[in-house]
Amino acid sequence: MLTACRPTTRTPSASPTPAASVGLNPIDVLFATTSPVFIAHRGSGDNWVEHTFDAYTRSIAFGAPVVEVSVGASSDGVLLCHHDATTTRMTGEQFVIAETPWSTLSNLRNDARDWLGPAAALQPIPRLEDVLNAVARTRIVFVEDKQGTHQPQLIGLMESFPEATSHFVWKQSVEYAPPAAIVSAGYKTWGYFTKNLYARAEELGAQHDYLGVEHSATDDEIAQVVALGKPVIAWPIHYRSTRDRMVSLGVTGMMCSNVPYVSTTVPSATTDAFASGLRAAGDLPWAAHTQLQPVIMAETASVTVSAQGAHSYLMGSLCPVPADTYTLTWEMRWPTDLPPGASDDAGIAFGTPDDRPYRVGTPGETPGYHVTVQANGRVELFSRPARTESGVSLGVMRTAPVQPGEWLLLRVTVAAAGIRVWRVDGAGWALDSPDTSYRGRYFWLCKNYDAGLPVEFRSIAVT
């Protein structure tokens, strides 16, 4: 029977088989019996190079019961997997896919190193037939005809697989009725809402079997779609907190870009993975945009944060930390120059209840603590309630001034009786606070000034 990975302490099963003995379509059975159902959005593009054979097969190997595939076609009619109309974003080469022969497209390589890390291998654009041969017999595939002009060819390929209607779901905007050929053949359809369409939820939702909502939709917009009584799938899901919000609103499916992290509830490691040159599952910038991803450097086993403005980087691979007593250790430095402002600082935020963004100096929905370090050696511990900007100082220690390129070793110990902050390098300094307001289990690396001057972190560990 088709199965789904769900929030668990174990790696999900990787070997579902069709539920042929069940009277209902096994896709309906999956959504009726499993919540949430995880769908590997673009093959789980936070973890592997999106819409590639490697991404689809790796997400399946992890245990995702469903993958989402975007389909285009070359000028000579080869169906292929790619999200965009052009190859520019993913390959750096400027070709319009529909105007380019497969002989040219097949030699291009998708490059996601800016998002996944410098060790992410370049991956070819795959033929759709090769992908489906690898996954469609044991998993469900959500298929979207991005060019909108290849329905007969695409349907013919789907029909070449046994029990095709049990393994394929037609994906498209909810604004349009599904193709007659898809409906008459008995395929399920998923119609996704985008902004300005939620007001027409009842009208448009009637056209599809499953419905989709954006992760950025309001609670009221999502409630309108859920009230229609059909399975609702949210997209794209990068963070566990987004998953939890959607589940609380009655959403049953997660079109997920980060399946290994979002489908689990335990840390995958106790130390960072920067030396691998790859971003670990769960490590993410405060907003899931390529331009905000810090630079991972395998040669120094570190990550450099240099985006303009206040920036934070979730260490989700190490979260949740132990509930009551734990120690966070990290090293940090300004590798080239010290920050220009006397009050500019960087450090770490911790004790947050979930992985909603926490940026120092920027009001957010989640409370917690942050430790800041200034170039003059001032180290300060703050407590910050939700929806406030800077928080309340819990203590200051004056340590040796910082030199450009100098690594500082710091440690935070959280216990039932309070918090201790240490600067371990040099003479060794410490400050203590009896505060016990927040005992959340997520933490972030933080750059807290406007300039793009980089700050570097390494040796992140939880004990």
3D structure, described in words:
The structure is a single chain. This protein is of the alpha/beta class and 463 residues long. It has two domains: 26-262, Phosphatidylinositol (PI) phosphodiesterase (TIM Barrel), CATH 3.20.20.190; 274-462, Sandwich (Jelly Rolls). It is 17% helix and 29% strand. The chain has twelve helices and 25 strands. It has helices spanning 26-33, 53-62, 88-91, 102-105, 113-116, 128-135, 151-159, 180-185, 201-205, 219-226, 240-248, 259-262, and strands at residues 37-40, 66-73, 79-81, 109-110, 123-124, 140-145, 168-173, 188-192, 210-214, 232-237, 253-256, 283-285, 295-297, 302-305, 311-315, 326-333, 345-352, 368-374, 378-384, 392-398, 408-415, 418-423, 429-433, 442-447, 455-462. The strands form four sheets. It has an eight-stranded parallel β-barrel, surrounded by six helices. β13 (295-297) and β14 (302-305) form a beta hairpin. α2 (53-62) packs parallel to α6. It is elongated. Mean pLDDT is 94; it is low at 6-22.
Largest sheet, described in full? 8 strands, parallel, barrel
End-to-end Cα distance: 40 Å
DSSP summary: helix tally: 12
Low-confidence segments, ≥5 residues, pLDDT <50?
A: 6-22
How do the helices and strands line up, and which of them pair or pack?
Blueprint: H1 26-33, E1 37-40, H2 53-62, E2 66-73, E3 79-81, H3 88-91, H4 102-105, E4 109-110, H5 113-116, E5 123-124, H6 128-135, E6 140-145, H7 151-159, E7 168-173, H8 180-185, E8 188-192, H9 201-205, E9 210-214, H10 219-226, E10 232-237, H11 240-248, E11 253-256, H12 259-262, E12 283-285, E13 295-297, E14 302-305, E15 311-315, E16 326-333, E17 345-352, E18 368-374, E19 378-384, E20 392-398, E21 408-415, E22 418-423, E23 429-433, E24 442-447, E25 455-462
Parallel strand pairs: 1-2, 1-11, 2-6, 6-7, 7-8, 8-9, 9-10, 10-11
Antiparallel strand pairs: 2-3, 4-5, 12-15, 13-14, 14-25, 15-24, 16-21, 16-25, 17-18, 17-24, 18-19, 19-20, 21-22, 22-23
